[in-house]
Amino acid sequence: MKNKPDRPRGDGDGRKGSSPRAPAGKRAAPPPAKRAQARPPGGAQAARRPKDEYPTVQAFVAIGANLGDAQAAVKAAMEAIGTIERTVVTARSSLYRSAPIESSGPDYINAVVAVRTGLTAEAFLSELQLLEDQAGRERPFPNAPRTLDLDLLTHGNTVKDTPALSLPHPRMRERAFVLKPLAEIAPDKVPRAALARVSGQVIERIRS
Asked: How many CB atoms lie within 10 A of CB 13?
């Protein structure tokens, strides 16, 4: 362990390393302490960085509801998705009405939104599930009627098949209530052949 160097003695001549002498009987005031500046995680630049400046990927989310005020729930979900951290909604489809498929209850109100998100697919899905819970989503049995259903359709070029997440969504090309609103905002993502295969499913665009 290195010894600390001797502190320079003050000689009162103002040279570097010297300390002015205090008048007799008075103690010199200590130099003002430097105020420690708190640095947020990631630095000040990261803390002030607008969320639309983060590296992002394009993702698409299908929205559906058939309990309560379903139209209001879908519109509110569009707004709520835009509040997710590092996520911006870039396009919204019209609302559509469709009969339940492999489900029950009243007709569904459906829509699709496009986003840019800096979250991983898993983190983004977790945020979507939190919004479902906040909307009172319950899962008493598979395909039960729901106050809000949010399905992550695609996340950039991610291809994944795990118990928690499959991308692209494995059934998105089997559902008119997904393909119709998706084709409205991203026609390049929906082949004509895919639309033709679901042409027999009844779906109605809701005119606002």
From this structure: 8
Contacts 24+ apart (CB under 8 A), 5-10: none
Whole-number pLDDT of residue 154: 97
Taking alpha carbons only, the member of 204, 157, 147 closest to residue 181 is 204
- List the structure tokens of 97: 């009405």
Mean pLDDT, contiguous 10-residue spans, the chain (208 residues):
41 40 47 43 44 80 95 97 96 96 86 97 96 78 76 96 93 94 97 94 90
The answer to whether the beta carbons of residues 206 and 71 sit under 8 Å apart is: yes
Two tokens, residue 50: 């607008």
* Predicted pLDDT of residue 136: 80
Q: Which helix (H) or strand (E) holds 178?
A: helix 176-185
Q: Is 188 a catalytic residue?
A: no
Per annotation, catalytic residue among 92, 97, 116, 149? 149
137 catalytically annotated: yes
CA pseudo-torsion sign 97, 102, 106, 111: negative
Contacts of 85 (CB under 8 A, 6+ apart): 51, 119, 127
86, 92, 116, 146: which one is catalytic?
Answer: 146
Predicted TM-score (pTM) of the model is 0.73
Choosing from 86, 92, 97, 137, which is the catalytic residue? Answer: 137
Write down the pLDDT at residue 19. 42
6 is annotated as an active-site residue: no
